[in-house]
Structures
1.
Amino acid sequence: MIENKKNWNPLTFEEKRVIIGKGTEIPFTGEFNDHKLFGTYVCRQCESPLYESADKFSSGCGWPSFDDEIPNAVKRIKDADGKRVEIVCNTCDGHLGHVFTGEQFTEKNTRHCVNSISLKFIEKKKRSF
């Protein structure tokens, strides 16, 4: 099991349950499920950038969904049962959720189903000309 390193953000019991213990938050309860602001989603544990808001879409699954990640930000690991693919932060190995392909939700045909509790959001102000 991964330990929370000193330089990473301290985690609550529930955050540890999901991020370190590879748990899942209850669907439709996460703060980022219906979130629509412009910015970057980062790992709650180590704050590495993971997803851009431009890649977020509504899949109706109850968790934030993204059809792409920031290059080299996310690692894919086959679940022990071989049926699903887990996604973790490439920097700290914190559990994010699972990735699915072939569902036809977007042109990229990929859905990163991510626990809100695994993320923090950094809002970016849109430029005005």
2.
Amino acid sequence: MSKEQEKPSWWQRLRPRLLAFIVWSIARAIGLTLRLKVLNFEQVLERAQQGKGAVLVTWHGRSLIPANVFKGRGFWAIISLSRDGEIQNHIFRRFGFRIIRGSTGRGGIRAALEAARRVSEGGILAFTPDGPRGPSRQVQPGALFIAQKSGCPVIPAGVAAYPCKFLPTWDSYMIPLPFARGVFIFGEPVEIPDGISEQEFERLRQKVEQDINRLEAQAEQMVRAKRV
């Protein structure tokens, strides 16, 4: 039997779960101390109660606060099939998400079609449209494709915290400091009609990108003005 065919050791099996527990514990501890204001979330909750799906989008580097807000709500998330994805899988399951595995590199089309089906059935998908590897703060077509195929809207959101630290990662991941102020703002739904032209699809992609940035700038202004 080659090394590639050998079964993972106990440590290889345990490591993703252990790292996930550590990261989840830190994220929850920060979330519990956060002085957070969430705006316009009622529209999402109403859709969920009415069995109407939606694709919620904000930047990959701002996902710690959304993970805490969405905790235990049964929202869906797409997690990559990579080693890092296996850790994220355990983290998001601890937050109460339902998981679809796949990414742009492996299983992407299958994952997107499954996500579109779940959203069309009334599921709420939390999606980072610049993930899992960037380019940072650029909306990729996946979120719009899922919304289009499901017949449900994209709902952009902006996230900010102060004080906070930004990690030296590709997405400048934001970590709120303990007892930081936080703001999480949801914008207006953006419909992605089926059968539109490439030019119209690109216009809507840019609109979603601009909406996320605008809402994030509004959130930043609020936390720094101590309006939380």
3.
Amino acid sequence: MTEKRKIRLLEKAPNKLRFLVEGFPLPLVNAIRRACFTDVPIMAIDYVEVFENNTVLYDEIIAHRLALIPLTSEEALKKYKRPENCREGDIGDTNCYAVLRLEVETGPMEERIVYSGDLETFDPDVRPVYDNIPIVVMAPDQRLRLQAYARLGYGKEHAKWMPVSVAAHKYVPIVEFDVNKIGEECLSCIEMSYPWLVEKIKKSKQGRIEILEDINTSALYWCAQRKCTNNEGFKLHYDDKRFIMTIESTGSLSPKHIVLEAVNAIVKKAENLLTQLDKIRKESGEVRG
């Protein structure tokens, strides 16, 4: 009998997505998690031309800071070519690169912090996600002039092209309990970190609770192993057939878009693998076509 496959939304926020995955094998779930880091393209600054800089930071440090500023990429995925379709270093190709400019100057008695919001973009669809990321502190009579070029890239090339700050999955924690059999030491240990859980246990008296909240169950596991070992009234185990997946975006793409792009990347890899295997079979004479 085929195992039922389900995806249930647990939490949705602008930069965060949590969902329950059921009926899918662990290798596939983990592949999607890894692909969120490595195979989803986003925009990031790759080249910087510094025309003038007498600030405290070297050109290379400023370029590095600029590269790590998240850039909006939702529309960029439709407008710009993927990295594999662009020639490396051809920054004049407007189909591959978006241009941003930074020009800041301080007066004789002026000090200021240069922020990501000071970047001017030639393409409104490619701009800093956040305006308050500091780049450099400028002293009086200093000047910073540069032009930056952003392109689509993959996290497997460099961390600046990773669209997620978190992509993780875990087994679903399950608590089985009987209030009449739980020892006081066990219950007190759990209550120190999870008072809401103890409240549920006392209210239900006996039963089973699936913990779908976004919490760390390490302390609960410690209580189960150290304070509830000889206790028949409390058991903690993990369902290895069901997973809670958490995706947190840097803001370049929505979490939903990231997951869909990750799935598409895995599908393309699978199709490419099948094509190569078929080619090998034909060359070896196993398949005649």
4.
Amino acid sequence: MKEFIYISLLSILLFSCQVEDFELNNLNGNRIDALGHGGMGISNLYPSNSAESILNCLYLGATGTEIDIQMTSDGVLVLFHDEELGGSTNLEGLIHEHTWDEIKDGVYDEIPYSAYKIIRFDDFLELTHNHSDYIFTLDTKLYTESTDYYSYIDEFSDAIVDVFNEFNLHNHVYVESQSTVFLELLQDKASNIDLYIYPQTFEEGLADAIEFNLKGITISTNEINKEQVKEAHDLGFFVTIWGVISKEENIEAIHKNPDMIQTDKIEYLVELLEEQDLIN
């Protein structure tokens, strides 16, 4: 009986220590860009999109990170995810309802966070002097109550183009959006910015990528499989997978052969890819 228990325990230990075998085939040199989700991801010591969260993500060896971008009423790009400020900070309303001066002293006050500040995108780039060493994906959050939506996205796209030109971001920063109108507007202003559609379904995303000649598709891991990734690749479109929130989902996502993965478990994804030299 003791011998049986010993063999069983040994088998479990050996199984748990097995190294996952990955054979990548993608458009990114058969390697993957390991990106954090707003930095270190949700349920972390630091609030998503804070400077502390992003810098810690980069420190862990990530290729880069996804960042949520919004615009104030005076055209300043800031890092923030939620539509409403009131859910996680000491402020109220939408980012776009405030000037930068009105929110610059705002802090995250949701437990377990304590007094981490909202940060401007240009200030973050100044803080990260070697930002060109990393890949960043900007998830543009088009939250506004403006009655002139086109003027709003026109100003937003101008702000994106300005910061790209000021900091020379064209080779290592991508823009993703759910709005094809916004992407088309941005494309007309700066054809050298790589753009990704962020669709509800793979079929919608592929159709939009073809119609608007985009760089690629950013999509939930629940809405795409390995065969669909290959379909996009065969047409020349890069694929970024998001919504990866566990160790197991990191493994599943890698097996789908995407070009980039945005994960809430960035440390584990980096370890997985480094084991087989598959990280960019």
